[in-house]
Amino acid sequence: MNNFSERFEENFANNRRGYSMGIARVFLILIIFVASVLLISSLFLFSKVKKIYLGINSGQKNIEESLVLFKEGNFSGATLSAKKSNDDFSSVLTVVEELESFFITKKISFFSENIEDFKYLAKTAETLSRSAEKSFFIAQEVEDIVAGKKFDSFLEFDEHEKYRILKLLYENSPDINGIKANIDLSLLYLDKAKDNRFLNSYDDKINKLREYLVFSSDFLSNLSSFSAVIPALTGYPESSFYLIILQNNNELRPTGGFIGSYGIMEIKLGDIVRLETNDVYHLDMPASLNKSFSVAPPEPIKKYLGVDRWFLRDSNWSPDFPSSAKNIKWFYEQEMLAAGRSEELVDLSGVMAIIPRLITDLLYITGPIEVEGKQYDKDNFIEALQYEVEMAFREEGESEWNRKNIIGDIVKEIKVKLFNMPSDRWQELLGLFEQNIERKDFLVYLFDDYKRGVSSGFNWSGEIKDSDSDFLMVVDANLAAFKTDRVMEKKISYYLEEKGQVLNAKVSINYKNNGWFDWQTTRYRTYTRVYAPLSSKLLKSSGMSSDNSFVLTEDNISNPKTSFAGFVSIEPGQERVLSFEYELPKNVVQLLKDEKYYLLRLQKQPGNNISEFKAIFKFEKEIKSIEAQGLVEIKNGNEVHWTNNLDKDYDIKIFFN
């Protein structure tokens, strides 16, 4: 019995040792297997990371080389290097996507999250290099056309070369749109990876890249619009004709100023081949002799100018430039017919309106010009020209009929200097026009619907804007007050208050006449209109010099509005305040309630110099945040004070908790 027990215990011990040995072997095999998997995975990861590292370095080297070659004018070499960079980053993207699908990186969130961000960065680089390749290819096509000529002046090229360059830009409009789309896609990818903590040390470089991409996107947007309207703007393939109106904002009118001169400009293959300007009375007076041409003017013109017929000089009565541009074209053509000059009519592509400040800015770039022995520069142009056409012509024995001929000579001289300007100053010239468009010193209306649509991004058409929320535009019309706007000081205040289900507004315009009675200035006489959201209700008005205020529904403009109007006269050295109080329509109140924001779209009248605009917004709810340019202050949690000069259009957006 004892022997049996001893043998049983011995066999059990042996079996236990064998079992333990078996478990140990399995565990050892498992450890070896896991170690092997980890080793193989590490080798796999290392090889992929190495490929990514080498690909990024190679891609960066190639893109930098392409930029150097591009600056040197070697466009074919730049295109080739950009293509190599694109291939490099495409390979990097492929490797990153392989890592993304690898089972270990999929299971471990640390890897999956960071690989996702690096994938977006790789996509950014790949997309940008592809854009660079296409851009350099277009540049190479331009280089093939110009055949080594320096691009110092567009006038250096012959007609055939100009034709081919404009044709290339026009036909590459879809490619330019594609490049812009790639830039926008790169911005999207870059934003998706911006919060990665491993990229914090590269924040400055990434932010600079983002700023560059935003600039590039905006530039390409304008270039795309330009390329689409090349036929209208550059006279390709056939000449384009524009009616030019010169508006004197010292005698302010709704779209910028009194139309003292007009002209026809012909553009052919990017060159101004014809530019003629004339005194507006050279057309109005002959037309007035034709009794069959008789158009009744708007009532304010009839009443305060004392005329019963309407002519080109007063045709810009609507502050909505598209409406006025159509009117200007109609008066020009009908008066040409009335004057017996039908053979001179051309098919107009559009109307361009120019305010003198654009000319002074151009003189800042070109430097002084000399015409008929007189020098004009950025500082004296407006005063010197005004004196020349109003007073000096008599001293010089010039007839009143020909007194404005000098304007055409000045414009032609500026044109010669601009077209001979070296290419390294074109960016400066572009910036000047952008600034003048923003200030509305330069307005353009194209008659072709498609071309007008694709060029809408230029913001140069001067239409009264649409707004689902609040809107305000103050419009002055100088009626028989000489050039008194040159000495007027104007300030506007706006007060808005929420009271239950009602929004009440008050607009006050302060006029101060700093002039005296002389050949340029006199008492200021203005027919003022305040444009508000459609269906606004007038509650009270004050400050009019004669009659009562008028309430008008203006639905013949781009975006219909309600306007409140009145006539004001201010003696030299005097001040006067014109005010309108009104209730905003229910849809504005409802938007504030439903969407929890309020928006004032504040629009500048072209040519009007408002030295100060102050606004106070008082609400019943607590303010969360504000989006607005200018001096902003929140008071008592529910009140906003905003101050700025009205040098351009502004949006003031207020959000509520």
Walkthrough of the structure:
- The chain crosses the membrane at residues 26-46.
- Keywords: Membrane, Transmembrane, Transmembrane helix.
- This is DUF4012 domain-containing protein.
- Pfam families: DUF4012 (PF13196).
- 47% of the residues lie in helices and 25% in strands.
- It is globular, with a radius of gyration of 35 Å.
- Strand 5 and strand 6 form a beta hairpin.
- It is built from 17 helices and 21 strands.
- It has three domains: 2-228, no CATH class; 240-458, Aminopeptidase (3-Layer(aba) Sandwich), CATH 3.40.630; 470-656, Immunoglobulin-like.
- The strands form four sheets. A seven-stranded mixed sheet has the order 13-14-11-8-16-21-18. A seven-stranded mixed sheet has the order 12-15-10-9-17-20-19, with helices on one face. Strands 3-2-1-4-7 form a five-stranded mixed sheet, with helices on both faces.
- The protein has helices at 2-71, 75-101, 103-107, 109-146, 159-171, 173-192, 203-228, 230-234, 281-288, 299-305, 321-338, 356-366, 381-395, 405-419, 426-439, 449-454, 586-595, and strands spanning 240-248, 258-268, 271-279, 348-354, 369-371, 374-376, 442-446, 470-475, 488-499, 502-513, 524-532, 537-542, 546-554, 561-570, 575-583, 597-603, 610-618, 623-627, 631-635, 639-646, 650-656.
- The longest helix has 70 residues, at 2-71.
- With 657 residues, it is α+β, with helices and mostly antiparallel strands.
- Helix 9 crosses helix 11.
- The mean pLDDT is 85.
